[in-house]
Structures are given as structure tokens and as C-alpha cells.
């Protein structure tokens, strides 16, 4: 199973500031623990210095990650705050018929509730879902 981990990086921060990315490793560890043979597609690992790319490379990377999101078997989105890049990846996955599992308190946000297959309030709730075989049902 190929899982794309989408999630907030810059959010609403100006410049090159990014949100701590520790959530990505937490999600990856859960997936490795409970999903045999999982392949993780993590934009932050694929492009670890992406926030410092020039405009042309940044554009190519944004579009490349959106395409990759649509090619996954499922997408896990971590959205504790608004994230335009994550919204694009969620949209691309949704349009491609890829299940979107969202970890977010923003349950009233139209993008979140429209594009998500399932919404979890936090990472432990998502872990319980994965541990119970929830991803295998997608």
C-alpha cells in the first residue's frame, strides 16, 4: 500500500518558517507498525529543503506532489490549521478516487468535511483506526 502523507508545512507563516514536522514521523511509525509492506510518500522527505526552493522549482514541486497524491492508494492529511498545499493534495486525491483520511480539529471546514473519507480528532484516534485494520478496508 502506497500512502501519501499530506500536512501543513508553512500554513499561514510568512517567509520560510515552517510548522514542526514531527507529526510526519508519528504517522509513518503508525503505518509501519500496522500496515505490512507500506510504502510512505512524504513530501518533506522527498523535498527536505523545499521551503527554500526558487519560484520555478517550488511550482514544479507543488504540482509534482499534487500528482503524487492522486497516485497513492490512500492519503493521510494532518491539518491542525489551514494549509493550502494540503488542500490541493486532498483535492487531487479525492478527484482520483483515493481515500482521504484526515487528522484535524477543523471538522466544520468545507474542504475538510467534503474531501475526507474519514476525519480523526488527533493522531491517537487515527492510530486506533489503523490498528483496527481500518486502512485495509479502503
Structure description:
By secondary structure, this protein is an alpha/beta fold. It has one domain (2-137): Rossmann fold (3-Layer(aba) Sandwich), CATH 3.40.50.450. The protein has 6 helices and 5 strands. The protein has helices spanning 22-34, 43-46, 55-71, 84-95, 110-115, 123-131, and strands at residues 2-7, 39-41, 74-78, 100-103, 118-120. The protein has a 5-stranded parallel sheet, with helices on both faces. Helix 5 (110-115) links the parallel strand 4 (100-103) and strand 5. Helix 1 (22-34) runs parallel beside helix 6 (123-131). The longest helix has 17 residues, at 55-71. The chain starts with a strand and ends in a 7-residue tail after the last helix. The model has no long low-confidence stretch (mean pLDDT 93).
Beginning-to-end CA distance, first to last residue: 10 Å
* Number of distinct helices: 6
Share of helix, binned = 40-55%
Radius of gyration, in Å, reads 14 Å
Count structural domains.
Answer: 1
Lateral arrangement of strands in the main beta sheet: 2-1-3-4-5
Overall mean pLDDT: 93
Total beta strands? 5
The largest β sheet comes out as: 5 strands, parallel
Taking pLDDT < 50 over at least 5 consecutive residues as the criterion, the unreliable ranges are: none
What are the secondary-structure elements, in order, as H or E? EHEHHEHEHEH
**CATH-level-2 architecture:** 3-Layer(aba) Sandwich
**CATH topology term:** Rossmann fold
Structural class: alpha/beta
CATH class: Alpha Beta
